[in-house]
Design a protein that fits this description.
single chain, alpha+beta, 8-stranded mixed barrel, 11 helices, 29% strand
């Protein structure tokens, strides 16, 4: 009974504790079985090269590591199929989810140019940022670099020279190159340079590069040294008929030599010439060298953010019609997608000699050798101009002689007087050394303003060829012939009279009747 009572009493109690663990144990066993199945399935999938995984993070690591392994293998001459990540006949298979939007980009990376592998000088630390600059030559005249620096530009690409396309094939320095490098550097503007090449073979290209490296060695050249070759499609060019492969060989010879000399090389070309390798083998050039593309959109940067050129490029020349304080002529403007915190040191530690501007840079002088005197009296100036930067050195009177060495179509003569180069207005000089003063035939009645010079009436819009003074009287020696205004190219005056004999024009400007030397004027451009 007690036994039975015990049994009846047990039925009314809770089950023993281990009984409650049975469902939990069953769940654990089931989970273990599922995990074993997954592991076996995963292992079998790996042997089949599927590379699939339910773990997204693991899949991402597989992509990254597999790509690095492929790149390392390629560098050692291995094919992607030989890597430790499995033998696959498909060299583009990176074991990624086909739906992964990054897959296409990863595949393209294998054939893209690694910008870090471009040849860059180790003398300066390059940074990836946007910088704005200009490129200049003697055709911009004498530049006031302090004014240019105040605009905030970062760099200037300065032409250092060119090879003559004529038979002598000599290399010539740009006549303002040293001055421009010196003054831009002093103004705190970082400097790069370019050379206008007409090299017809690799030997000439290397010669040009060596000349450039020597020429710039005493300056702080931070931005690249560029190869610029144009005009090769003209029949009179020494490069006419060369195929693009030979032209590319020549360019690469120059660029490689520049790199060997310790500078960053860069290739300059037009967007058209480089598109689809029309004129240059860009596949070869882009592999190792920075590219500077010239392409002018309807709207300049930054309204147009990028060049339409679809190849790789590091610098974009987006206009040749820039204007800024300190430069009297239109200037090319560029955006670079790199920059430098500090300027590079000069390769040659010896400081360069002080350079002066080429005051004849914007003028073409025909060489001559003759003795001249003043028709009456004329000022001899230190530069061929009458601006505020011009200084009167002497006044040459009739009967006093000077040696004329050049005549410019801008209206100036280059003279040697007292062993110094100076300049005078051509129309005020004569080769008649008889000592008689040339008097214009002004027998007519004086004009209403008291001016005895007779002017032939006319009415035409004129502007200065470069720069000219407008005076109260048609004279440079009369004390009353004060300078009332100075006009520059683009400033329009109305010419109302001209005297071809004495070389003066009567003009209206700012509501006044003034006078200037006729040879300084040119017809004003058509107004839009």
């Amino acid at each position: 009974m007690d036994f039975e009572d015990d049994g009846l009493e047990e039925k009314g109690r809770e089950p023993h504790g281990w009984v409650k663990l049975i469902p939990l144990l069953a769940a654990v066993v089931l989970i273990v079985i599922i995990l074993l199945i997954m592991v076996l399935s995963r292992r079998d999938g790996d042997h089949n090269g599927s590379g699939e995984s339910g773990d997204r993070e693991e899949a991402n690591h597989t992509v990254t590591d597999s790509y690095v392994e492929r790149e390392a293998g390629a560098a050692m001459g291995e094919s992607p199929g030989d890597s430790a990540w499995g033998a696959s006949d498909d060299t583009d298979d990176l074991s990624v989810d086909e739906n992964d939007p990054q897959e296409e980009a990863v595949q393209e990376q294998g054939s893209q140019v690694d910008l870090a592998q471009l040849l860059v000088s180790e003398r300066v630390q390059e940074q990836q940022r946007v910088t704005i600059g200009i490129d200049v030559s003697r055709y911009q005249g004498t530049i006031d670099w302090s004014q240019v620096a105040e605009t905030g530009i970062d760099f200037a690409m300065i032409r250092v020279g060119y090879r003559s396309p004529e038979e002598d094939r000599e290399i010539h320095a740009d006549t303002n190159a040293r001055y421009n490098m010196q003054e831009a550097q002093n103004a705190g503007i970082q400097v790069g340079v370019y050379f206008f090449s007409t090299a017809s073979n690799q030997e000439e290209a290397r010669e040009e590069a060596q000349w450039v490296a020597e020429y710039i060695s005493q300056y702080r050249i931070t931005y690249p040294v560029a190869f610029d070759c144009e005009g090769y499609e003209r029949e009179d060019s020494v490069l006419y008929g060369l195929g693009k492969e030979k032209r590319t060989d020549i360019a690469i010879a120059f660029l490689q030599e520049i790199y060997a000399q310790g500078y960053t090389p860069m290739f300059y070309g037009s967007g058209y010439g480089m598109t689809d390798s029309n004129h240059w083998d860009m596949d070869r050039i882009e592999q190792s060298y920075k590219v500077w593309v010239s392409q002018y959109p309807a709207l300049p940067y930054p309204q147009t953010e990028r060049s339409s050129y679809e190849g790789a490029y590091a610098m974009w020349q987006y206009t040749n019609q820039g204007s800024m304080p300190g430069i009297s002529q239109p200037v090319d403007v560029n955006v670079a997608y790199f920059g430098y915190e500090d300027a590079a040191d000069a390769v040659n530690g010896q400081p360069p000699d002080h350079a002066c501007a080429d005051v004849e840079a914007l003028m073409h002088f025909v060489e001559t050798d003759e003795t001249v005197t003043a028709k009456e009296a004329t000022n001899l100036r230190d530069i061929p101009g009458q601006g505020q930067d011009s200084t009167v050195l002497w006044t040459l009177g009739n009967g006093e002689t000077a040696r004329r060495t050049g005549v410019s179509d801008s209206g100036w003569s280059r003279l040697i007087y007292q062993d110094r180069v100076c300049y005078a207005v051509t129309n005020l000089l004569t080769t008649d050394l008889s000592g008689s003063v040339e008097e214009p035939d002004n027998t007519g009645e004086p004009e209403g303003d008291g001016i005895k010079t007779v002017f032939t009436d006319c009415s035409e819009l004129m502007t200065a060829k470069i720069e000219t003074n407008l005076r109260a009287l048609p004279s440079v020696t009369n004390p009353e012939a004060v300078v009332v205004a100075t006009i520059r190219y683009g400033d329009v005056v109305v010419r109302t009279g001209i005297n071809a004999e004495v070389g003066w024009s009567r003009v209206e400007y700012g509501g006044q009747v003034l006078y200037c030397v006729s040879s300084y004027l040119t017809p004003a451009p058509a107004q839009e």
